[in-house]
Amino acid sequence: MPPRSINIFTQACSPLPEPIRASGPAAERYAVDVAMAGALLGMERLGCNIFVVPPGKRAFPFHNHHATEELFVILEGTGSFRQGKDSVPVGPGDMLACPAGGAESAHQIVNDGTQPLRYLAISTRPELDVIEYPDSGKTRVIAGGTGFDLLVGRDTATPGYWDGE
């Protein structure tokens, strides 16, 4: 049985695995280390990750989920939370709600501070989710709450996840 307790401040994080890790030109803007806390704790229906974003980087492209709800808790560092058309500064103790929805719920956390930005991400894990990327015009369909791609596309083209980011 996995442990039922980890420390969110001291848990070691590692780079995202391929092919999820940013590569090519996208690696200039995106970088993140992760501890898949939910999996470490044996959770199956609730997603929970610890992310650490270096200064000047973003973890993921600006996106919205049609089925997944996310809640982020800033643990250390400072940055900006972009949601819809707004952007607000964030720091330790801030909770950021990202309900499922359209472009108005699109979101992104940016480390525009000088220290690593560590945050806790908690999410639902629906069987199927459609994710839109308003900045690049892409759509992604994932299955099983695992992040397994069924489709990444733009109109009729099928770009890679990091293309255009």
Which properties best describe this structure?
mainly beta; Jelly Rolls; six-stranded antiparallel β-sheet; four-stranded antiparallel β-sheet; 1 helix; 13 strands; 40% strand
Describe what you observe in this structure.
The chain is mostly beta strands and 165 residues long. The chain has a domain at 15-126: Sandwich (Jelly Rolls), CATH 2.60.120. It is 2% helix and 40% strand. The chain is built from one helix and 13 strands; from the N terminus they run E-E-H-E-E-E-E-E-E-E-E-E-E-E. It has a six-stranded antiparallel beta sheet with strand order 1-2-3-10-5-8. Strands 4-11-12-13 form a four-stranded antiparallel beta sheet, with no helix packed on it. Strand 12 and strand 13 form a beta hairpin. The chain is globular, with a radius of gyration of 15 Å. It starts with 13 loop residues before the first strand and ends in a 12-residue tail after the last strand. The relative contact order is 0.20. The model has no long low-confidence stretch (mean pLDDT 91).
- What is the fold named in CATH at topology level of one domain? Jelly Rolls
Shape: globular
CATH superfamily of one domain: Jelly Rolls
Helices and strands: which structural class?
mainly beta
The major pleated sheet works out as: 6 strands, antiparallel
CATH architecture of one domain: Sandwich
- The multimeric state of the shown protein is single chain
CATH class of one domain: Mainly Beta
SS field, number of helical segments = 1
- The first-to-last residue Cα distance is 39 Å
The fraction of residues in strands falls at: 35-45%
The average pLDDT is: 91
Show unreliable segments: none
The helix/strand order is EEHEEEEEEEEEEE
The count of β-strands is 13
Q: Could you give the order of strands across the largest sheet?
A: 1-2-3-10-5-8
- Residue share in helices? under 10%
Radius of gyration: 15 Å
